[in-house]
Amino acid sequence: MQNNNERTVDVLQELNQFVNDRIEGYKHAAKVTKDPAHQSYYKDLVNQSTKFSNEINSTISSFGGSPQGSTTAKGKIFRGWMDVKSAVTGSDEESVIESNIRGEEWAQKAYNDALDHKAELPQNVVQIVEKQKQASLATCERLRQMKESVD
């Protein structure tokens, strides 16, 4: 049976893999977009996600765990597929934005999965997860607005 600290570390390490996916996804988007405003926004999201990852890793360390620097296998496969797709079809703005929306939807699932353990997590950890989830929701909404403006 896991103690609460181990459970907290496990939940946060898994969540941080998705945050690291988010970093890599927005780095890629910033590289392939042709729109300077979108590129700037994606770079801002890389910075935001890096702060999120640092916050989670700091919390993991405070509970005796090892920081998480890896990404998910699913994220690696998705980024590889997007590279192949853009090589074949080109990187139009709409497809870049759609990929980012899918990434944020995956992030939302990861935040929800972490919050499924809310009763087992310390309140400060729940607050971190909820704050980051709200930022991800806001990002998803902004991406949807961006997509509408390029249609």
UniProtKB/TrEMBL annotation:
InterPro entries in the cross-refs: CHP02284, DUF2383, Ferritin-like, Ferritin-like_SF, UCP029477
Occurrences of domain DUF2383 (ranges): 8-116
Transmembrane segments: none
Pfam families for this protein: DUF2383
Protein name: DUF2383 domain-containing protein
Lineage: Bacteria, Pseudomonadati, Bacteroidota, Cytophagia, Cytophagales
